[in-house]
Amino acid sequence: MTSLEAGTVVTLDVEREAPFGYFLTNGEEDVLLHNSEVPEEFDPEKSQKVFLFQDHQGRLAATLTIPTVQIGIYDWVEVVEVKESLGVFVSIGISKDILVSKDDLPALHSLWPTIGDRLYCSLKADKNGRLFGKLATENIMREVAEKATRKDFNRNITGWAYRLLKIGTFLLTEENFIGFIHESERKQEPRLGQKVEGRIIDVKEDGTINVSLLGRVHETLDEDAEKIYSYLQVRGGKMPYWDKSEPEDISARFDMSKAAFKRALGRLMKAGKVRQEEGWTYIKE
C-alpha cells in the first residue's frame, strides 16, 4: 500500500474521533482531519476524499478542500506574503500558504512578485515532506497555450509575466496566448507575476504574439493609422508600402482598401510620425 504523502489527494476512512478532530486511515497509517477542517455536514460513516499537507507544526494533516494546484498539476495562485529571507508565499486555498523559494525567484528583489501578483505553478515536496511551489517551465506554458491568429492583431490584452529575460518579458494572456514584450516596448521591466495590459503588435506563425506596453501613437489616430504604425514598429521602422502601392498588396497586408490606407497614411504624415521615400514608408526619428 502506498504511504501517505503531502501534496497528494487520497480517499480515506474515518478511524476514530478525537477531541480535536477525526483520524483518517488507509488501513496502515493515520492522519488527522482537524476540527477546523470539518464541515457541519460531515458524515464519519463515509469515506473521505482529502488533500494531504504538513500543518504549521510539521505534522501530516488532511483537508477536505482539494486545491487546483497539486504535485504535477499546475494552476494560477496568488501571492499573499513576501519574506526576503525565504521567498514569497502563495495561497492554494487551504489553511496553510505555500512557499515559492527565493532560489526560484529573480536575483533582483525589485523583480520579485508582490502581494496580489499571480504565479503559474504546481507543488513539489522535499525529502522531509514539506510542500513548496514549483514555477512552470517554458515547456509547461507551451502546453497550456492557445494560438493567436491575424485577427487578434492590434487587440488589447491582459496577461501575467511568467519569465524574465534581459531582452524582454514573456507573459501568458487571459486568452492563454504566449506573448513577448521586447525591452523597447516597455517603460520598465514588469515583476514576475505582475499583471500587465498592452496590445498585440505582431502575431507570429506559431501563434505566439509580440506585445507592446507603450501607449498608442496618438489618441486622434484611427484604427487604420494605428495598424499601419504598429506594423512599422514591428518592421524596425520601415515598410515597402506607400501611397502609390498596389491595392491588392495593401489589402493582402493590412486588410483595408487603398483609399483607407492613403487616408490613414495621410494622418500619420500630418502628425509628423512617418515619411515616404521611393516606395517605402519610414517612422520619423
State the end-to-end distance.
Answer: 71 Å
Query: What is the number of helices?
Result: 4
Strand percentage:
35-45%
Q: Radius of gyration in whole Å, from Cα?
A: 26 Å
- Reported by name, the CATH topology of the largest domain is OB fold (Dihydrolipoamide Acetyltransferase, E2P)
The succession of helices and strands, N to C, reads EEEEEEEEEEHEEEEEHEHHEE
Major sheet description = 5 strands, mixed, barrel
Mean pLDDT: 91
Q: Which strands sit side by side, in order, in the main sheet?
A: 1-2-3-5-4
CATH superfamily of the largest domain: Nucleic acid-binding proteins
Fraction of residues in helix: 10-25%
Judging by the overall fold, what is the CATH architecture of the largest domain? Beta Barrel
Structural class: mainly beta
Low-confidence stretches: none
Query: How many domains is the backbone divided into?
Result: 4
| Topology, number of strands | 18
The dominant shape is elongated
Q: In CATH, what is the class of the largest domain?
A: Mainly Beta
Notable characteristics:
OB fold (Dihydrolipoamide Acetyltransferase, E2P), 14% helix, 4 domains, elongated, five-stranded mixed barrel, 18 strands, five-stranded antiparallel sheet, mainly beta, 285 residues
What does this structure look like?
It is a single chain. This protein is mainly β and 285 residues long. It folds into 4 domains: 55 residues, OB fold (Dihydrolipoamide Acetyltransferase, E2P), CATH 2.40.50.140; 62 residues, OB fold (Dihydrolipoamide Acetyltransferase, E2P) (Beta Barrel); 73 residues, OB fold (Dihydrolipoamide Acetyltransferase, E2P) (Beta Barrel); 61 residues, Arc Repressor Mutant, subunit A (Orthogonal Bundle). 14% of the residues lie in helices and 37% in strands. It has 4 helices and 18 strands. The strands form 4 sheets. It has a 5-stranded mixed barrel. The chain has a 5-stranded antiparallel beta sheet with strand order 8-7-6-9-10, with no helix packed on it. Helix 2 crosses helix 4. The protein is elongated and about 85 Å long. The N and C termini lie far apart (71 Å). The model has no long low-confidence stretch (mean pLDDT 91).
